[in-house]
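In this section we walk through a basic example: taking a raw amino acid sequence and producing a predicted 3D structure, encoded as discrete structure tokens. The instruction is simple. Fold the sequence below.
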Amino acid sequence: MSLKQRAIQKEVNKNLTQKRVQKPMAINSIGVLFIEDQVNIEGLRQSLVKQFKLNNEAINCLSFAEQSKTENEGVFTKKSFSLLGKLKKQSAAQPFLEKKYDLLINYFNQDRPELLLVSSRVKTTLRIGFQLDEKRLNDLDVLVQLDEHELFIQELVKYLKILK
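The resulting token sequence is shown next.
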């Protein structure tokens, strides 16, 4: 494990020990964090818009690109982090982190330190995602395949109704 990865993991641990679970009163804003090449994000976004009766602006997406050399809007990379594991100020993840969400969807199934750090820093009421080795990250795990976004959303809605 590199110095950068150790620093990121230390920050993740700090963020997750301070995490508090709250039940959202209503879902008016959704953040989606995902790995760029693994998700049909437009299909997922449209399903969320339809299911939660939100407009496109209420759903904010941020992707992590493993192979990308440079950052684009809405895409962050390994280069978004300093040697000491801090997120750089010019990172594409900064605007995503500045907003508060009623629901954060961690739409990834890999324990990538960069994803864990960004997710742990998001201001949100509730985190839902796939089962990971880092059990503290999500408040609720949905046990479906990554490519089954319709089923994921059906299960998500079912669990949210139970929580209310």
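Looking at the output, two observations stand out. The two ends are 41 Å apart (CA to CA). Residues 3-163 form a domain with the Rossmann fold fold (CATH 3.40.50). In the next section we compare this with other chains.
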